[in-house]
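Shapes recur. Our protein:

. . .
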Amino acid sequence: MPLLPGAMERRGKEDYMLKELILEGQNRYFDSEPCQGLKVTAKDSKKLCREMKEMALKNTWNDRDRAILNCVILRLLMLLLI
């Protein structure tokens, strides 16, 4: 019996959603799961932080928000260095 077009693609999406629901039921989340074999360097981390900061500052509306954001970013960086 031939498969309908897109059947395997849809099945892959359903598997992903099922795995995500199972993790949520265990109070775990997909974005906090370890990724084995992934190599991340200090340079990669710094680049990500810089890009996130640029995007956050770009999306702020006023100077007060920028000041608060800079304070939060500074505190987060201090925690990473500890």
Remarks:
- The chain is about 65% helix and 0% strand.
- The chain has a mean pLDDT of 76.
- The radius of gyration is 20 Å.
